[in-house]
Amino acid sequence: MAKITFIDPAGEQRTVQAEPGSTVMEAAIRNDIPGIDAECGGACSCATCHVYVDEQWTEKVGGPEPMEEDMLDFAYDVRPTSRLSCQIKITPELDGLVVSTPERQG
Amino acid sequence: MTETIKTDVVIVGAGPVGLFAVFELGLLDIRAHVVDILDRPGGQCAELYPEKPIYDIPALPVVTGQQLTDNLLEQIKPFQPTFHFSEMVTGLERLPDDRFLLSTNGGERFDTKVVVIAAGGGSFQPKRPPIPGVEAFEGKSVHYAVRRMEAFRGRHVLIVGGGDSALDWTLNLAPLAARVTLLHRRDAFRAAPDSVNKMRALVDAGVIDLTLGQAVELIGENGVLEAVRVKRDDGSTHEIAADDMLPFFGLTMKLGPIADWGLQLNENLVPVDTEKFETTTPGIFAIGDINAYPGKLKLILSGFHEAALMAQAAARRIDPERRIVFQYTTSSSNLQKKLGVA
Ligand SMILES: Cc1cc2nc3c(=O)[nH]c(=O)nc-3n(C[C@H](O)[C@H](O)[C@H](O)COP(=O)(O)OP(=O)(O)OC[C@H]3O[C@@H](n4cnc5c(N)ncnc54)[C@H](O)[C@@H]3O)c2cc1C
Q1: What domains are there in chain A, each with its CATH number?
Q2: Ligand 1 pocket test target in B19, B44, B62 with most atoms within 8 Å of CB
Q3: Could you tell me which CATH number the domain at B5-125+252-339 has?
Q4: pTM of the model
């Protein structure tokens, strides 16, 4: 299992256990993390599971693929650390990952 | 206004389920009119995930959203449905003789015996851009579609987005507007490469402006826009003067006018029985993602089944005297004749 911490815009932290092989979005939905809508269910077809990856983790997590970049065009307040959480696969190396949720989803 | 079309069935929605309903009705000799607000068939499959694989269509181990749509169109061809695209069904009224009058925003009218609501998650509509307070400017200075290009003559127009709509309107309005500025989050565009090249040529020639960043605030009063505040990647902001803004942030599904048709609704879904998939109003059926019943799964597969049973009940309503004989397409020469294969 890998630990993932979600920080909401008010600064509140929630840490959940996630299964390697699943996605950060799935971990959020399974644990009722507020601020992740995931309307399309993880098909990279909307932009409602947008998160900011903590600066310490951006290198390990990597950047978005072109298709994900296209979807990010529809998100709110996109930053260089923006990712769609349905496209971040959890690996043992991501144990401890910290992401923040935006003020609103697109 | 065009003449009212008299028919047996109107299907609201050309998603996969509406398309398959054409097939099931066709086997029972019923021809359908199909209306969709989109400019082409396929609903969510064509609009949201044309290139993504679907793995749970029976007997098709893998098929993309667009392939499924194309296959359905091929399958229903013998039944010659009449499509009415880019039309939203806005009105549904009961007529005295147990028929229904459907009307569209484009002025089309249908006098029909049966209505099949296959509206999925609702009509596709432009997505509101994620800018706080944008509602106040809608209709006056913020427009999601261009109805009349002339309205933008001599104006400072800010177009936001990186897809085909944004680029097409940038190119079309450039000769007319006082100045067109295209605003996009990044220097890469989803639009057709040809449009992107044309846009870049206009920028190089000094005819239009291209700005990279995200709109974060609209400045103006009483819905009249003066400028748009734009945030760059480094967090700094600046203002772009604009009379009008045209944001293109894709489409989203909204229930829309169906809410006003006097149907019973349950959390934006239309309750139906599971024998006929008929609503509480006899003659109005609901199939696919739009309906609700105990155990409902929002799957294409379920919608196909619903279409088959709905068609049986619709046929009985259209001709109560008719005896419907159960037949297989494999062995019935009668069905094969209809399919054009006998
Ligand atoms: C990313 C993604 C992946 C999916 N993957 C699968 C999968 O693997 N397997 C599966 O079975 N399902 C999948 N689905 C769900 C599947 O796409 C839906 O179940 C299916 O599209 C429902 O079909 P439908 O015909 O009922 O409605 P829709 O496809 O939603 O089509 C409804 C149509 O009706 C139109 N409409 C609505 N109201 C009006 C009106 N008033 N006037 C005019 N037009 C109107 C809309 O514009 C729309 O085109 C997926 C969905 C998404 C978003």
Answers
A1: 2-100 (3.10.20.30)
A2: B44
A3: 3.50.50.60
A4: 0.84
Candidates A74, A78, A87, partner chain B, best to mutate (most B CBs within 10 A):
A74
Query: Class of B128-249 per CATH?
Result: alpha beta
Domain ranges of chain B: 5-125+252-339, 128-249
From residue B123, give the alpha-carbon distance in Å to each of B47, B52, B264: 12, 21, 18
Contact assignment for A69 to B186 by CB distance below 8 Å: yes
Q: Which of A40, A72, A80 sits opposite B48 (nearest CB)?
A: A40
Write the pLDDT tens digit of every residue in B53-97: 999 999 999 999 999 999 999 999 999 999 999 999 999 999 999
Instruction: Give the pLDDT confidence of B8-63 residue by residue, as tens digits.
Output: 999 999 999 999 999 999 999 999 999 999 999 999 999 888 888 999 999 999 99
Strands B251-254 and B123-126: antiparallel
Distances (CA, A) of B200 to A59, A85, B179, B183, B326: 33, 33, 15, 13, 62
For residue B1, the model assigns a pLDDT of 58
